[in-house]
Amino acid sequence: MKRLILYLSVVGFLASCSNSGNGELVGTRKKSKPFYQPDPYGMVFIPQGSYTMGAGDEDITHGYLIQPKTISVSAFFMDETEITNDEYRQFVYWVRDSIARRMLGDLNPEEYLIEENVKTGEVYDPPYLNWENDIDWNSEDQDVRDQLEDMYLPENERYFRRKEIDTRKLMYSYYWVDLHAAAKKDFSETGDYRNAGLANRPQGLRDRSVYVRNETIGVYPDTLAWIHDYTYSFNDPLTEKYFWHPAYDHYPVVGVNWKQARAFCVWRTEYLNSHMSAKKGEVALSEFRLPTEAEWEWAARGGYALNPYPWGGPYTRNEKGCFLANFKPLRGNYLADGGIRTLIVAHYPPNDWGLYDMAGNVSEWTNSAFDPSSYNFTWDMNPNYTYSAKEDDPPVMKRKVIRGGSWKDIAYFLQVTTRAYEYEDTAKSYIGFRTIQPYLGRNKGDNPNKASRVYN
User: Fold this and answer.
1) Omega before 237 cis (within 30°)?
2) Could you give the C-alpha distances from 184 to 180, 187, 196, 209, 406, in angstroms and in order?
3) Strand 431-432 vs strand 363-369: parallel, antiparallel, or unpaired?
4) Is residue 161 situated within a structural domain?
5) In CATH, what number is assigned to the domain containing residue 360?
6) 365 domain-assigned
7) pLDDT in tens for each of the 456 residues of the chain?
8) Is 104:272 a contact under the CB 8 Å cutoff?
9) In a domain, 151, yes or no
10) pTM surpassing 0.90?
11) Which of 191, 312, 316, 331 has the most CB atoms around its CB within 10 Å?
12) Residue 427 falls within a domain, yes or no?
């Protein structure tokens, strides 16, 4: 009996050693598959690097907004084109359908809501939306039509008695964590540094929920931007059809303010991660977001150190005399470059990193807040000045950097170093955006199934 006990003890000891890597520090993922970040759909890889951010030539405005500064930027993926009308419309339709499913869930929860995990018995509160069943917008069921009636414009506001979705009700609500507030330090009277987790908590709160922010924003673009930007100009059919007509599907979306662009990034992150988590063994990827001002300039340069334009040369024409971007050439001959206003994305050649329209077509929102002296006080590694403005903040605190110039700008604004700004709650007919996804640091492998969204 003693021998049996001794034998079992030895076997148990050897088994424990083998399971723990013979006592070596092997980590918790020694048997897991190595993670390689795939190429996101419609994005290109921008390598890490250092460059001199700011003016490489004369500061013709003498604004001292672009003082040269050597910085380093981490690698990331970036949309090869600006977000198009069709891509942004996917976001709008998702918001529309999610609201409709929530409304129909009150009528028929079994069909439009998932209230319980059938495998584990876990009850979801609030319930998840069931995306498996399509919405019949022309249903013959009177109860369904009555339930969805609130989604449409009131009869007294309808054009030609036609039922139309009330775009004012397409509101997207999301949560985000204010890490900057959580990371702040407070210098107390005793001389001790205290984390903001203690210093900034309202009285009575003892958890991290104080840093969770909730925002609700209307997602439908301002389709009247063409009119209020250029009052004394006839911009039909753009004013009426630009966002929803299939002729403009692959044109850059405009009339989207900075807050809407950020909401799109949040939605795109959740949309991808929810699909990835539904696949067994898939790891959720990092978030999508707007590029910082430094990231945008690094990407626009295309690997050139001193180029004034994304295509690498000092001129706006190629050797055949053709313009290389959609802007305002020749003192206002808009048509000389091939387009009088916006053009289909990827109409002109890309820069050396495969990015299209980094100059011209539409200006682009960045993540960065605008401050004339931000180059002086930001760090030299992944610099970014950011500020989350409150509703009662003065307008000067709501300025966000835009880059790249647009169809209505002269060549100076197409330069990779030129800075401009617009207010975060303002939508314009010449401002769009593109997103990035941070690179997680694993060696990037070639993806033979990489998809592109270049349409011509």
Assistant:
1) yes
2) 6, 10, 5, 16, 38
3) parallel
4) no
5) 3.90.1580.10
6) yes
7) 555 555 555 545 444 555 556 777 777 766 666 677 778 899 999 999 999 998 766 666 666 677 889 999 999 999 999 999 999 999 999 999 999 999 998 888 888 888 887 778 788 888 888 888 889 888 888 888 888 988 998 887 777 667 889 999 999 999 988 888 777 755 444 444 455 555 555 444 556 777 888 999 999 999 999 998 998 888 777 777 899 999 999 999 999 999 999 999 999 999 988 877 656 555 556 789 999 999 999 999 999 888 899 998 889 999 999 999 999 999 889 999 999 999 999 999 999 999 999 999 999 999 999 999 999 899 999 999 998 888 899 999 999 999 999 999 999 999 999 999 999 999 999 999 999 999 987 644 544 445 565 655
8) no
9) no
10) no
11) 316
12) yes
Number of domains in the chain: 1
The structure tokens listed for 379 are: 């760090």
Q: Which domain holds residue 302?
A: 1-83+252-262+277-456
Q: Which amino acid belongs to residue 373?
A: S
Token representation of residue 25: 């520090």
